[in-house]
Inverse folding.
């Protein structure tokens, strides 16, 4: 990973120099949704907690940032603070409801709590715009400087992705992250060692909410719109699909998964409205050929190349 | 001898089936008590009730003088009550050292630490290494647990709760699947290196129980039918009928 980070930074700078506005916004979208999917990886890959309500954390933060921006302007720190606070608050509420159950019940409860956010977004028309969503937001700013333009937004998204990845990595390497893996592998043993399963999982959920919230806060400024679809459970399911394609438990695979999914959605949907068929095909092929996702496949490829050159 | 664990009238039913019926006995500080009985006697249910994984329907459990009523398993552990399970519950993907460190960190109050985690991990790894050295497994510290033999896994499984420095350790068939020599080695490690820790030991091999325990509690159909020294229990007619059979003795 020490070589990947500078390479990714170099790639980001190169993209910022040569890509057009449409591509830069698309790449920024991949990075922001990638951060949200990576935060989901903390729950699924490291905690074994499969959620179908994760889009509510990301989309809820996007709504909150958009609403605050309309009233108080688009200051970057204010937006990030709003998004992180919203993501964590929604994660805390979700955690209190869902973390005392497991497996299928957890799945259904996350779906239901996520859909409650969708209900609010869809029906509270005066604040959220209802089915129409929110458009016409002020531009992002940082103090006196306007952070407008696709290039700046892309670089912001890239910075956020790098920071979020570093934070997630440090979390899983720390004792609390090891404990999270322990609760996935041997929950009863962890209880018998004195760990509170709720406390461990709640911390992971809060961090996932903070990361998804930070990404969600920038999303309306990249996408120029936030609508109820962003908090719908189908968006949560799409995040799970992105994670499976990219590679569960790798963290960085989340960005690959979101790139593959959004690439198919963006480019193939111009040709056919059956682009989801292609997503399904990629999903099935990934599960059959690379059960641990594309990230793991790339890891194996790198290992082979190293052995060959050694 | 001061009692570390006091059970009085503990009962637990599953529908019409009575798994524990008015169970009562003490375990003293640093004492090793064997718990024997045929399958279905209620030994594992008693472990689950004592450690808080099951609630009793009646009776009282006091640990170090404190009532345990309604206390969550994690809080009981914090007070010094630890256990193992019938099957080894280890983390096969982690190294032997990491398995033990998982317990060490929690015991040191660092189990949920994020910031300063590198230092906590290093300290836990060192403490785990010392514990493994004591148990003669120092050379296996960096081996993934999945590569250990069954006997070595069992030792690691017992070392994990020991890393919590418990005042009482409940061992649920820790010698299952082990040879006599491996069983003696495991219990020798526990008794020799952790003499202050009281043990409540369930084992089907009664020679192991008689050889390593100060007292023996015999259960049958959820009831305690005899408490005594190994010699007394071995000679008891009711115990011989219920459990030991004619082959014993």
């Amino acid at each position: 990973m020490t070589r990947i980070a500078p390479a990714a930074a170099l790639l980001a700078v190169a993209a910022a120099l040569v890509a057009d506005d449409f591509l830069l916004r698309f790449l920024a979208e991949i990075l922001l949704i990638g951060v949200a999917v990576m935060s989901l990886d903390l729950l699924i890959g490291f905690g074994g907690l499969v959620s179908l309500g994760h889009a509510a954390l990301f989309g809820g933060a996007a709504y909150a940032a958009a609403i605050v921006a309309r009233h108080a302007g688009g200051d970057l720190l204010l937006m990030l603070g709003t998004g992180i606070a919203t993501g964590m608050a929604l994660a805390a509420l979700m955690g209190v409801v869902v973390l005392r159950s497991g497996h299928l019940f957890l799945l259904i409860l996350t779906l239901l709590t996520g859909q409650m956010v969708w209900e609010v977004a869809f029906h509270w028309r005066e604040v959220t715009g209802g089915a129409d969503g929110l458009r016409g937001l002020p531009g992002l700013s940082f103090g006196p400087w306007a952070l407008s333009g696709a290039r700046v937004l892309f670089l912001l998204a890239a910075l956020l992705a790098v920071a979020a990845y570093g934070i997630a990595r440090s979390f899983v390497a720390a004792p609390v992250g090891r404990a999270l893996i322990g609760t996935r592998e041997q929950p009863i043993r962890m209880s018998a060692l004195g760990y509170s399963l709720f406390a461990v999982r709640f911390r992971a959920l809060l961090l996932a909410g903070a990361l998804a919230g930070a990404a969600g806060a920038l999303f309306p400024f990249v996408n120029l719109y936030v609508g109820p679809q962003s908090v719908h459970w189908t968006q949560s399911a799409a995040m799970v699909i992105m994670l499976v394609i990219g590679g569960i438990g790798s963290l960085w695979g989340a960005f690959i998964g979101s790139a593959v999914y959004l690439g198919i959605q963006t480019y193939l949907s111009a040709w056919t409205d059956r682009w989801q068929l292609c997503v399904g095909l990629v999903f099935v092929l990934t599960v059959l050929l690379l059960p641990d996702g594309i990230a793991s496949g790339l890891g194996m490829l790198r290992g082979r190349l190293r052995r060959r050159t050694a | 001898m001061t009692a570390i664990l006091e059970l009085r009238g503990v009962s637990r039913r599953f529908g019409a089936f009575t798994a524990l019926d008015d169970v009562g006995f003490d375990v003293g500080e640093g004492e090793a008590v064997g718990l024997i009985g045929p399958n279905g006697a209620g030994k594992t249910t008693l472990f689950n009730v004592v450690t808080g994984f099951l609630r009793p329907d009646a009776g009282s459990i006091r640990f170090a003088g404190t009532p345990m009523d309604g206390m969550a398993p994690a809080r009981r552990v914090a007070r010094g009550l630890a256990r193992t399970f019938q099957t080894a519950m280890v983390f096969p993907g982690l190294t032997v050292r990491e398995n033990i460190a998982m317990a060490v960190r929690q015991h040191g109050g660092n189990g949920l630490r994020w910031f300063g985690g590198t230092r906590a991990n290093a300290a836990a790894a060192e403490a785990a290494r010392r514990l493994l050295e004591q148990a003669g497994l120092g050379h296996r510290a960096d081996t993934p647990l999945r590569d250990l033999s069954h006997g070595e896994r069992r030792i690691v499984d017992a070392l994990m709760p020991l890393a919590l420095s418990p005042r009482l350790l409940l061992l649920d068939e820790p010698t299952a699947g082990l040879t006599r020599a491996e069983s003696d080695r495991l219990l020798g490690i526990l008794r020799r290196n952790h003499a202050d820790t009281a043990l409540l030991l369930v084992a089907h091999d009664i020679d192991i129980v008689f050889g390593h325990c100060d007292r023996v509690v015999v259960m049958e159909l959820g009831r305690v039918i005899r408490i005594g020294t190994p010699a007394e229990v071995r000679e008891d007619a009711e115990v011989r009928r219920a459990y030991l059979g004619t082959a014993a003795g």
